[in-house]
Write a structure and sequence with these properties.
mainly alpha; 0% strand; rod-shaped
């Protein structure tokens, strides 16, 4: 083979490797961006779960308080009804 053909083949192989390398670099950058996005998403969901947990604890405390008030009201109604009074009058 002639020297020019070897030079052409060398240039083609070099260009092919350069394109493959650039492609791999772009693929790595895309993968890193995707991982960063997923990390941020997981962190954001963690914060939302924390806020949801706090809201549920607050709701639970409110429900306990409502149950106490309803129990007292029912006891007062029961006591008034058992004493012969009108249960619809305020105690």
């Amino acid at each position: 083979m002639s020297k020019d053909l070897w030079l052409f083949l060398g240039a083609v192989v070099s260009a092919t490797f350069a394109i493959a390398r650039l492609s791999l670099i772009q693929q790595r950058a895309s993968a890193e961006q995707m991982m960063e996005f997923l990390d941020r998403l997981v962190e954001r969901q963690g914060h939302q779960y924390d806020r949801l947990g706090a809201a549920l604890e607050s709701l639970q405390a409110g429900m306990v308080e409502v149950n106490v008030v309803l129990r007292r009201w029912a006891d007062a109604m029961r006591a008034q009804f058992s004493s012969g009074g009108d249960p619809w009058e305020s105690p």
